[in-house]
């Protein structure tokens, strides 16, 4: 029965599909969503990205490069091993570059393709999809899950629920274990797990990350996207009328209504939408895309696959729900001209910034040398006269080898005429892989070539077995 608007004691009211007024509470009780399984090209792409991202996440820690884990963030020793390159804290600039590329890459992609990242590659989407696979495998598809949840508590229901949650927990713990394996060598971590000798911190982070995975993907699901993810809130700042979004073609679909396949729906005054609500049933966030773009939409395109399937059964053209732009949908330009709209200023700006940062980072990495040198002077005696009558300055060089193998290094100073480099101990300094050596170095310069004051000098440290590994560090020589 319809309700009069003035009789509804709520702040917000909407009209439902039956033309009745319906209460909308600002903080409504959560209603569980049961997404229906759907086949189609976009579902295949989602499956591909699930496997691609998870093969990377779970597989990379087990791969060794130069006898080291391919990716290992050794926080204790402040060394980061990434695909054979060793980064130190002073290489923090590369992390800044990665974050800039990720940010501007996301901005550019969002401006062009909307929330495709959310729908196909976001960890929350990926793990929710995996958990739904477990749920479907144990409890069945949508109607079977609804029936099970609404049914009485019996032995079968308990067995299925325990099985599902057991699979979720095991998978979550393995995810937590893998996460910690990026910070503790995973083979060592596995041995500690087998022998039950995990440290308190390792155990905490395995359980914490596992609990986060279990809670977010198993229980919160779409609520993370709706209420916790900031991306959904500021995405509108990057959208424009030329951004690809999942759209319902109102002009073609309305007025909607059920009908038999044999009926000439055009003669009956109906649009192509048969109001089957399949697009709603497959939606992982529970929205009706026919109501227009909503911030909850993650762009997964499940509704496109479902609608295309229905259109095929009704012998109607596909694309009632499709990826398109607002301007194309409003006939500002044909959809075939979408690619020409990529030249708009916003996309160009994001693209230029992304390209500049990428080029600088690649060039810097290409020139990156696996050896670093820090120089400190002997402050007790800035300059003194040596036994040979020349002026002497004393330095301490700290040489760090970030290469995957041991190297012997030569040290040569330049910058003043007739400068001599004297190294304490062996003239060739052996530094083990990922090791560090302190070396005492004395520079001798004739007094006639080093007057009072400071004179710039340069130390060149070169690997004897590989001259391409070389770095320079500037310092100064104090004369008198």
Automatic annotation (TrEMBL):
- UniProt-listed SUPFAM superfamilies: 4Fe-4S ferredoxins
Pfam families xrefs = Fer4_18, Fer4_5, FixG_C
- A single MF term (Gene Ontology): 4 iron, 4 sulfur cluster binding
Coiled coil (UniProt feature): none
GO cellular component terms attached to this protein's record: plasma membrane
Q: Does the keyword 4Fe-4S apply?
A: yes
Q: What are the alphabetically sorted keywords of the record?
A: 4Fe-4S, Electron transport, Iron, Iron-sulfur, Membrane, Metal-binding, Transmembrane, Transmembrane helix, Transport
Could you tell me which InterPro entries the record lists for this protein?
A: 4Fe4S_Fe-S-bd (IPR017896), 4Fe4S_Fe_S_CS (IPR017900), Cyt_c_oxidase_cbb3_FixG (IPR014116), Electron_Trans/Redox (IPR051684), FixG_C (IPR032879), Helical_ferredxn (IPR009051), Ig-like_fold (IPR013783)
Membrane-spanning segments: 45-65, 80-107, 166-183, 203-220, 347-366
Domain 4Fe-4S ferredoxin-type: residue ranges: 259-292
Q: Does the keyword Ribosomal protein apply?
A: no
Checking PANTHER family in the record gives: FERREDOXIN-TYPE PROTEIN NAPH
Among NCBIfam families, the record links this protein to: ccoG_rdxA_fixG
What name does the UniProt record give this protein? Ubp3 associated protein Bre5
Species of provenance? Amantichitinum ursilacus
Q: What is the lineage of its organism?
A: Bacteria, Pseudomonadati, Pseudomonadota, Betaproteobacteria, Neisseriales
């Amino acid at each position: 029965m319809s309700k009069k608007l003035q009789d509804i004691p709520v702040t917000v009211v909407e009209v439902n599909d039956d033309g009745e007024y319906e209460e909308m509470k600002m903080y409504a009780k959560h209603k569980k969503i049961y997404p229906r399984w759907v086949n189609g090209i976009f579902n295949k792409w989602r499956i591909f990205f699930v496997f691609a991202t998870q093969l990377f996440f779970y597989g990379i820690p087990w791969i060794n490069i130069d006898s080291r884990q391919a990716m290992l963030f050794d926080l204790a020793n402040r060394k980061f091993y990434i695909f054979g390159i060793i980064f130190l804290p002073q290489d923090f600039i590369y992390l800044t570059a990665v974050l800039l590329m990720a940010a501007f890459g996301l901005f550019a992609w969002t401006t062009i393709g909307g929330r495709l990242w959310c729908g196909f590659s976001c960890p929350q989407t990926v793990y929710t999809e995996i958990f739904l696979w477990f749920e479907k495998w144990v409890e069945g598809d949508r109607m079977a899950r609804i029936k099970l949840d609404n049914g009485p508590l019996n032995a079968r229901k308990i067995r299925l629920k325990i099985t599902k949650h057991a699979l979720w927990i095991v998978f979550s713990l393995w995810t937590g274990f893998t996460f910690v394996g990026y910070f503790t060598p995973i083979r060592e971590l596995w041995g500690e797990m087998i022998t039950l000798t995990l440290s308190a911190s390792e155990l905490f982070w395995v359980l914490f990350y596992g609990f986060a995975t279990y809670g977010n993907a198993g229980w919160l699901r779409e609520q993370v996207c709706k209420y916790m993810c900031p991306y959904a809130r500021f995405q509108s700042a990057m959208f424009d009328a030329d951004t690809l979004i999942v759209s319902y073609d109102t002009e073609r679909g309305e007025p909607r209504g059920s009908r038999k396949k044999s009926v000439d729906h055009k003669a009956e005054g109906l649009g192509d939408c048969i109001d089957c609500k399949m697009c709603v049933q497959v939606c992982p966030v529970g929205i009706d895309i026919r109501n227009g773009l909503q911030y909850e939409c993650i762009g997964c395109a499940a509704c496109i696959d479902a609608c295309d399937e229905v259109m095929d059964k009704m012998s109607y053209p596909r694309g009632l729900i499709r990826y398109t732009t607002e301007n194309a949908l409003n006939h500002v330009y044909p959809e075939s001209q979408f690619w020409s709209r990529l030249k708009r200023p916003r996309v160009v700006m994001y693209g230029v910034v992304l390209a500049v940062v990428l080029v600088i980072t690649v060039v810097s990495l290409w020139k990156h040398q696996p050896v670093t040198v820090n120089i400190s002077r002997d402050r007790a005696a800035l300059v003194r006269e040596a036994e040979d009558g020349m002026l002497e300055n004393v330095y301490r060089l700290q040489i760090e080898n970030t290469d995957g193998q041991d190297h012997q290094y030569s040290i040569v100073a330049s910058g003043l005429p007739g400068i001599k480099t004297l190294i304490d101990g062996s003239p060739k300094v052996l530094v083990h892989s990922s090791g560090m050596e302190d070396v005492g170095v004395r520079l001798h310069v004739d007094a006639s070539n080093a007057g009072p004051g400071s004179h710039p000098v340069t130390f060149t440290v070169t690997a004897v077995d590989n001259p391409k590994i070389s770095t320079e560090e500037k310092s100064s020589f104090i004369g008198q």
